[in-house]
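User: quick one - fold this with zinc ion bound?
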Amino acid sequence: MRVILLGPPGAGKGTQVERLAKHLKVSRVSSGDLFREHTQKNTELGVLAKSYMGRGALVPDDVTIKMVMNWVNAPEQAKGFVLDGFPRTLGQATALDQALAEKGGIDKVLYIMVPREDLVVRLSGRMICRSCQTPYNIRDSQPKKEGKCDKCGGQLYQREDDKPEAVRKRLEVYTNETEPLADYYRSRGLLEEVDGNRSIEDVGQALARLVAA
Ligand SMILES: [Zn+2]
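Assistant: Sure. Structure tokens for the protein plus zinc ion:
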């Protein structure tokens, strides 16, 4: 089973991707994981990616795709895989399709849907400890004492990135990038949408059912 999991920031994609990979008994990867691995190991692709990131530029699609295809073509992934938030652009999606054509292509694209305003609430509820960086969330992991870290007593604060206005911008960027992708996979009959406005357990079960079908 070759699966892509898409979902906006705050939809709980990280948790679900782990669960889904375990359920399918395959590995999962995100392009961020591959960037880290390649740059740490100083591979040719890693050095190339670093040269772009060092200039504050985006890593070009062909570099990212090469990293993903190296991983996908490894013997460990013969039984399948879950791609976490990749592809991100239509260009990456078509390149991935071409690269996987011989293997039979992607089987399913699962899209966790959460209404934008709920995501704003979820994401802007995040607080971080100034001293030890432990994250808290007013939704499901509140500190015992308001504004104080349970672990070290440090002061909790909200990152600029997590303020509602910034969150709205992040979500807008995500939607603009992802909607064309969703349309692309929908038109190919591969897209399955999942209501992400439920418990982690319920969303997990819904995803598991979709890959069993
Ligand atoms: Zn702390």
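One thing worth noting: The helical segments are 13-24, 31-40, 44-54, 61-72, 90-100, 116-124, 164-187, 200-212.
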